[in-house]
Write a structure and sequence with these properties.
Aminopeptidase; MurNAc-LAA_cat; two-stranded antiparallel sheet; 8 strands; globular; alpha/beta; single chain; binds zinc ion; about 300 residues; six-stranded mixed sheet; N-acetylmuramoyl_amidase_3
């Protein structure tokens, strides 16, 4: 049983510019997220609307055959003006502030957790926090190009924290229609692919949006597959998984997923995760999945 966490600091939601690739300061320590037995998942497909073809208005002479008739699909679920919150996992200053990020917090669902963690890194030393920050910025630009309002849970890659419950508070307070928490895993070198996590034991806070969160997860999974990313070969099923010990999901009152985009200890994944082209591709998949979900919600 859990109550709402107390928060000492709420980060501002001011967006930042979105075109540069961050430099990779190597952290001194790493931590990995724990894993548990995957439960079975059901899958469903998502739908996308297509653009209406241009109308032809010219009068054809009687001898010209009529062009084939097409019926434009009605515009469903305009996305402009909707709010999406992006949570880039970890932060570049975490490794130098153990006293802050190692503070114990209520993790929800009966778990005790720490404020935040350093994250993992590739075998070449490219850190997870730089990956999540880069993808978040590309994703933000992709969404804003559709008129979507984006709220970020951190505004730089050289700060400390915020603690995970404070990130959730930022997301919740924004009233976001969807929340995307971006991470990368550190596992055995042969493990590859992404998995999308939802709350496996919804809390009093997260339960009202449990179904929407699951729909968001499926939409993101489908879009990532469509973008060419393989589903995880070591966790979850068909790219979907549930966990009950993730603070950021336990304290979320919005439709929310956490994605482990790949395994930074796998050479193929790491090459995608540490290059701008790969990071743009992750963002494109996340944007497509988020937009498809928003449209499906009307
Ligand atoms: Zn992480």
């Amino acid at each position: 049983m859990s109550s709402a966490p107390t928060s000492s600091a709420t980060p501002s939601a001011t967006p930042t510019s979105s075109s540069s690739t961050p430099p990779p300061p190597p952290p001194t320590t790493t931590s990995e997220e724990t894993t548990e037995e995957p439960p079975p998942e059901t899958t469903e497909s998502s739908e996308e609307t297509s653009e209406a073809p241009p109308e032809t208005t010219t009068q054809a002479p009687p001898t010209t055959p009529a062009p084939p008739k097409t019926t434009p699909k009605p515009a469903t679920g305009a996305v402009a003006g909707k709010v999406v919150a992006i949570d880039p996992g970890h932060n570049g200053g975490n490794s130098s502030a153990p006293d802050i990020i190692n503070q114990e917090i209520d993790g929800g669902n009966g778990f005790t957790n720490v404020c935040n963690t350093v994250g993992t890194e590739s075998t070449d030393g490219y850190p997870e926090h730089a990956f999540t920050w880069a993808v978040a910025k590309y994703l933000k630009a992709d969404l804003e190009a559709q008129g979507i309002k984006v709220v970020m849970t951190r505004n730089s890659d050289d700060g400390v924290g915020p603690c995970t419950p404070d990130r959730a508070k930022t997301e919740n307070d924004s009233g976001a229609a969807a929340v995307i928490s971006i991470h990368g895993d550190g596992a055995d070198s042969g493990d590859r692919g992404f998995h999308v996590i939802t709350n496996g034991d919804p809390t009093e806070i997260s339960a009202p949006e449990a179904d929407a969160s699951q729909a968001l997860a499926v939409s993101i999974r489908d879009a990532m597959v469509n973008e060419g990313f393989p589903t995880s070969n070591w966790l979850g099923e068909n790219g979907l998984w549930t966990r009950d010990d993730l603070t950021g999901l336990n304290f979320s009152s919005r439709p929310k997923i956490l994605i482990e985009c790949g395994n930074m200890k796998n050479a193929t994944d790491a090459n995608l995760m540490s290059t701008a082209d790969g990071q743009r591709q992750y963002a494109a998949g996340l944007a497509a999945g988020t937009i498809a979900f928003l449209k499906s919600q009307g």
